[in-house]
Amino acid sequence: MPRGPTAPIAPVVLQHVPRATVRLQLHRGFTFDHARALLDDFAALGISHLYTSPITTAQPGSTHGYDVVDPTRVNPELGGEAALEQLVEALHARDMGLVVDIVPNHMGVGGAHNAWWLDVLESGPDSAYANFFDIDWQPPNPALRNKVLAPFLGENYADALASGRLQLTYDEVTARLAIAYYDHRFPIALTDYAGVLRIGNAGTATHAVADLFATLGAIRALRTRRERADEARDALRNLATTEAGAARIAQALHTLNAQPDALDTLMARQHWRLAHWRTANDDINWRRFFDIGSLAGLRMERAEVFEATHALLFRLYRLGWIDGVRIDHVDGLADPAAYCRQLRRRLQAEHVARPAAGLAGPPWIVVEKILAHDEAMRTDWGIDGTSGYDFMNQVGALLHDAHGEAALTQGWLEWIGAAASEAPFAATALPARRQILHAHFAAELDAATSALHAVAQQQRAAHDVTWHAIRRALAEVVVHFPVYRTYANAQGRDAQDTALVHTAMAGAAPSLRRVDQPVLDWIDAWLGGQPAGQDKLRQLALRRCQQLSSPVAAKAVEDTACYRYGRLLSRNEVGADPGEFAMNSAAFHHAMQARAHTWPHAMLTTATHDHKRGEDVRARLAVLSERPAQWLAAAHQWRTEHASWVRQLPTGPAPSPAAQWMLYQTLVGAWPAALDWHDADAVRELAERVARWQEKAQREAKLRTDWFAPDTDYEAASRDFVFTLLTGEAASTFLPSLSAFVHSLAPAAAINGLTQTLLRSTLPGVPDLYQGADFWDTSLVDPDNRRPVDYAVRHRALRALHGHVGNSLAFLLTHWTDGRIKQAVLARALAVRAALPAVFESGDYQSLAVTGSGAHHVLAFARVQGAQAIVVIVPLHVSALLGHAGTPVFPEGAWRDTTVCLPASLSQTALHSTFDGQTLHGPRLALGQVLAQLPVALLHT
């Protein structure tokens, strides 16, 4: 796109830290070529780096890329390596770079495309990849000794066999015999090939090939056996190319597939055990990603696994194609700290071979890490910080008015008929943790228990500590764990981890019988209280426990409790604690000063591919904290009006009261600012989106329905309720009421949206833009937040912005609902970042005092580096100041005597307003003047 006369200043030569990133979700419908076509727009917006979802080969048709099946190849569905090279060349031509998401914790399994996994299924413990995956080859269950549970059936095993849906097949390309079940393939052991080939009247040539396979079992040396196996497979491939050989193979398969008992006997001998997918929670003997049976955990702590899975990344980094990485689900790894340090060492070793293009400094590394309340990110991992969930929580809390907490809490409790004791979020989270642990992670709990019991059995003093006592005690420790996990290793744990373990122990003790409470002391010692040293059993037990608490916490809090607790959904977000309602300005300043000191290069994000609600949905719902009485009155009115459409089922009302409350909030938050309720097609589209969200939300809550056993009657009634409200009998009265309510919130919500956009762009760290969120983001949880983005309309808006004559953006407020004002604020802010790189790279953070009657409605700070500086002023909780204004512009006199006090270093400096062209002077800035045209301000020297 041609750059207009007021386009952002051209970016400087790339340094160690990206100036700003844009997150793109890549898939076969949005490839490297699609991204390359947008680079001029991203450059004009002020972006320095693309930040993409994983680029390695994923399961065919993957919409996210986290189900990697081949980490050694660039995903062909994205265009492959050739298209990636073209993208990188185009980036470098614009002085831009590339950051990629990597997935070290797990790989996609099942299906027929993960060669490493298929080899494990075929060869069992003798596979070259047997130790790549985190498999327990000797679990307590004797039926799984030297086998892998394969929970990929959509029905009971017996039904699948009897129906003929399990069939032995031959793949001509790989020369592999495998049981087929729809798209899944389960290879049979090579030693069974001889018996299959000899079924019926096998000819001489077929017997000769069968003999090659028959001899494999007698070969002890693994290397020799693999070489002979390759020779036998080549012979089979050659046999299958002949007409007689192909017919012989087909006949053998037909004969065997017609005999279910014989097929069952064959499958019983394999290194896998087929089962219904629901069995995984109870019986699985390999680590999953959360409770997802199609994602298998990797043993990344093993050197050969690390090198094999990262070889492509290291090569691309060495070539200068990649400048940094975001590490997905770092807490799933055995030792996240050691992994991160190892990754940095290896990338830095490759750095010396990099061409001049790309970053001038070491690699930029951030991790996906969920931090609990008051949990400090470890500073010894060798990373640049987190990927921003902590910031998303902080800025979200800042937008909420603490004065509304009590009324909203009481309103929620009365709505659902709950007692005051159920008010704290912990009252919802604790039973969710217990349910998730025992219903979804029973197999993992058993494995951790067995590992601890093995430790106990080798210690004389712990000889009588039983398996069941350990399981009971460990379960309560995990349930009461205050964070995702600890990071102890063979040398023990640090003081931070010790305090966390003791907090969990203190919470667990009252839930245990007195006879079991002494077991907690043993668990304390085994979880790093005493160094494990070279004791492999102790090391395994520690690893099993640390890799258990993390997925339980994530699944219980993010994916369960956050869908049950509905006080105000804008605080139910990834990385947030719904129990922490708000953050005042002083606490926010303190957090940002700490960020500037400790994590100046961490990512700043307010929207992600994992968010439950778009950033502007949260910004609008935050306004309810300022107007709790208005919200409660509207919600109760709607509840009364809609009572007759709530269906009474034997299991209770549909939707449930809690679900109805959350539905109303969702409609308020997700209603597009520019939507006309008379537009039937647009309203129906919204209804479809909300209905899909509701189904997912109710299943995640696991109260009236769930993913394992959906209550179709309840879900259908709840869906009907949505459509009745938006497109059916209730629509004629509900739509105008809902629309009017949204419009009353919208100006304040828009100011919240601009506030968090400006803060993200100017605070210490690297601002990230989630795809399409430069306009108002009213998306819901995935897959809604991964819908196609209308980049054409964003292109036209950018072009018009850069072609605009004049400095003020006030003209965009006339049509503020279209989102262009948000994009313009972002573009101007990122232009200042490009013009004053030192301020944002290393400038200090100074909170600014605000005086006057509106002081509690303002947050202001300066960032100063030498003679260069910026001043940021944003309003907070502005409903009262806006009154009945229909646009996000403050009425004259709204700020009265409110002023911002500049630091002494800027008191005599001329400051230029980025958004309206004013030139202002200190030592005090009158808010009535600073925010006269735009509701937020960015001033610079």
Automatic annotation (TrEMBL):
Pfam families, alphabetized: Alpha-amylase
Domain Glycosyl hydrolase family 13 catalytic: 27-538
PANTHER family reported for this sequence: ALPHA-AMYLASE FAMILY MEMBER (PTHR10357), MALTOOLIGOSYL TREHALOSE SYNTHASE-RELATED (PTHR10357:SF216)
Official protein name in the record: Malto-oligosyltrehalose synthase
Organism: Ralstonia soli
Biological classification of the source: Bacteria, Pseudomonadati, Pseudomonadota, Betaproteobacteria, Burkholderiales
Gene name for this UniProt entry: treY
